[in-house]
Amino acid sequence: MPYPATLEGFAFQSMGLDRADALRGDAGALRDQWPDAWLIVLDGEGRAAAGADGMPLPLRGAAFGGGPGTAIFLGRTDTQAWFALEASALPALDVAQWVDLRRAAADWPADLAGTFAYARGMLYWHARNRFCGVCGGGVTFDRGGFAGHCAQCGNDHYPRVDPAVIVAVSDGERLLLGRQPGWAARRWSVLAGFVEPGETLEQTVVREVHEEAGVRVLGCRYLASQPWPFPGALMLGFEALAAGDEPRVDGELEAARWFTREEIGRALREDGPGTDGIVLSPGISIARALIVHWYGQGTTLTRT
After folding, report:
1. Which of these, 23, 185, 213, 276, is most buried using a 10 Å CB contact count?
2. CB atoms inside a 10 Å sphere around CB 117
3. Residues 60, 107: Cα–Cα separation, whole Å
């Protein structure tokens, strides 16, 4: 059985940081890193501080004095440390604009966009774990922001992500796509769903495809993953071979249907706001990469 092909072209695959876990427990070392550190500053909506050119502001720790305080230590490049923090933790900044993550994924260098995604995910976790989920006590953070501790009941809390499968389902000739309520006109994408307790990823693929579209999966294979901090998921990309059942939806999707190679090819060639055909997932997403992979190679899975 051939090794799965690597998917390419989607955002947040690259970060360029050594997470430097050994430094997180050394408060003195983190203080020493602070003056020369680069800071990525996000507002309450998860947008990054940027200049007039749309690129991140070149903020250094030395400009704000002191030490990292509540800033989250993201890691190091070869030359300096990186920290993330909320704008509310700093004095008023001269910010030309605030850039959202989807725009950064399209416009920023890949390493910077990956670091932004990492920072956004960590700040989201902090914002939603200020109080202990066991007893309601206040949580304090240490280890560079990667460990929370409740002084009231003693429980420790650590960063979490929500795993979700996303899958290009084929019957060998066609690709199954679905539409969610509220999407833009003609927008279609591959199916996805969150992993439930007690499930393997493969079981999630089978369950989600059947729940959302009434189609029976015969086999599946993992291809690649993508951090997706909207707000805190990890998308686990699969290809699947399914029976050619007629899709039927029951609430989760607005519609689902099979698309031919010709239809997918046209959508890929004519992608853009002016098309009168279907509109596929944006290029920053692993969903688009799964569609491109299927169109280029089909599925290597076979019925047994």
Report:
1. 213
2. 22
3. 22
Give dist(CA 268, CA 291) in Å, integer.
Answer: 9
Which SS3 state, helix, strand or coil, does residue 98 take?
Answer: strand
Contact 58, 38 (CB under 8 A): yes
- Name the more confident of 4 and 109: 109
pTM, two decimals, is 0.91
Which amino acid is residue 203, in one-letter code?
Q
* DSSP helix/strand/coil, 145: helix
The secondary structure element, H or E, covering residue 30 is helix 27-33
Evaluate if residue 257 carries a pLDDT over 80: yes
Q: Are strands 38-42 and 156-157 parallel, antiparallel or unpaired?
A: unpaired
For residue 94, give every residue at least 6 positions away whose Cβ sits within 8 Å of its Cβ, in sequence order, or none: none
- What are the pLDDT digits (tens) for 109-159? 999 999 999 999 999 999 999 999 999 999 999 999 999 999 999 999 999
